[in-house]
Amino acid sequence: MGPRKFLESLRYAIEGVIYCINTQRNMKIHIIVAIIALTASLLLHISNMELVVVIMAISLVLVCEIINTAVEKAVDTSTQEYNPIAKISKDVAAGAVLVASINSMIVGVLIFGRHLMAAVLKAFA
After folding, report:
1. Which single residue of 42, 62, 63, 117 has CA 20 to 30 Å from 22?
2. Cα 5 off chain centre by
3. 68 burial level (CB within 10 Å; 0-12, 13-18, 19+)
4. Using CA atoms, how far apart are residues 125 and 67, in angstroms rounded to an integer?
5. Mean pLDDT of 49-77
6. Which distant-in-sequence residues (6+ apart) come within 8 Å of 54 by Cβ?
7. Number of C-beta neighbours around residue 54 at 10 A
8. Is the CB of residue 30 less than 8 Å from the CB of residue 65?
């Protein structure tokens, strides 16, 4: 693959991410929460390893949301009428986002909880 094809592929991928951000309410929510988590990471001075875990959790949620959108659009293209298999496909893709989001919340509680508790105790000491 030449540089031109690579750049073209990269442009299409970026367009896909932008489409998700512009059209998917949950993607916007995930990005806002990600910005809050990354800001908290800086303010609480979490370790580099903890930051890597936070970034991986954020990335997992965003990737699942992008794949969920792709599945939904592909299913919508294939049928206009109710189809129980189409419903299962959409539900399973949405379930992946749910699992990733729960994972992300657990990571947040485990990492930020300890740092927040330490900051609160320090403030009242």
Report:
1. 42
2. 27
3. buried
4. 47
5. 97
6. 37, 38, 41, 46, 107, 108, 111
7. 21
8. yes
Residue 73 contacts residue 33 (beta carbons within 8 Å): no
Spatial distance between the Cα atoms of 65 and 105, rounded to a whole number of angstroms: 15
Question: Which of the following is catalytic: 50, 65, 72, 81?
Answer: 65
Structure tokens at 56: 């991986």
Rg, the chain, Cα only: 19
DSSP state of 125: -
Instruction: Round to whole Å and give the CA distance between 16 and 70.
Output: 9
Is residue 112 a contact partner of residue 36, using CB atoms and an 8 Å limit?
A: no
65 is catalytic: yes
pLDDT digits (tens, 9 = 90+) for 9-42: 999 999 999 999 999 999 999 999 999 999 999 9
Find out whether 62 and 35 touch, Cβ atoms under 8 Å. Answer: no
| The two structure tokens encoding residue 69 | 């959108």
Residue type, 58: I
pTM (predicted TM-score)? 0.91
